[in-house]
Design brief:
- By secondary structure, the protein is mostly helical.
- The chain contains 6 helices and 3 strands.
- Strands 1-3-2 form a 3-stranded antiparallel beta sheet.
- It is elongated and about 65 Å long.
Length: 160
């Protein structure tokens, strides 16, 4: 991994990619989504503050555990610009994500358990399959197209 001398306070996109392990296209994407920022030189080249390295590491770690980019952007917005996120920042922000991750783990465990049942059954019935039709609240009453007609009719009744 290339070392960046301490006296250099800004990185090119290539240097940031090499140090962070993120592809240049990923860095451009992160920037377009407001996760990182750069300034432009007179030649219109991107320059990133050194602290962007830690922000990229923060984004990539959050992505690895399944946090959506919009949620990551909200978390980074809570931090002052051009300040390296600290261990305390990560602990505070990741604690807020814990409940969401626990919920996802529960859903994945349920999916895994039903997948085994489904393979044994082999039906893949859209009407009753918990994989194709999870938590179906309307299945006992009506099927898809009739339900759409019923909803349209109730909206038209409200307009009259």
């Amino acid at each position: 991994m290339p070392q960046i001398p301490e006296k250099i306070h800004e990185l090119t996109v290539g240097q940031l990619a090499a140090r962070s392990g993120a592809a240049v296209s990923a860095l451009h994407f992160y920037e377009s989504k407001g996760l990182i920022t750069s300034r432009r030189t007179t030649g219109n080249q991107r320059r990133y503050h050194r602290d962007t390295l830690r922000r990229v590491a923060f984004v990539r770690a959050a992505q690895r555990v399944g946090i959506p980019l919009a949620t990551i952007r909200e978390a980074l917005a809570e931090l002052p610009e051009e300040r390296t996120p600290t261990r305390e920042d990560w602990a505070r922000l990741s604690e807020a994500w814990r409940a969401e991750l626990d919920q996802r783990i529960t859903q994945l465990n349920r999916l895994r358990d039903h997948l085994t049942d489904c393979i044994g059954c082999g039906c893949l019935s859209l009407a009753t399959c918990v994989l194709s039709n999870p938590d179906d609240v309307f299945g006992d009453r009506l099927t898809g197209s009739r339900l759409m007609v019923e909803r349209r009719g109730s909206r038209q009744g409200r307009r009259q």
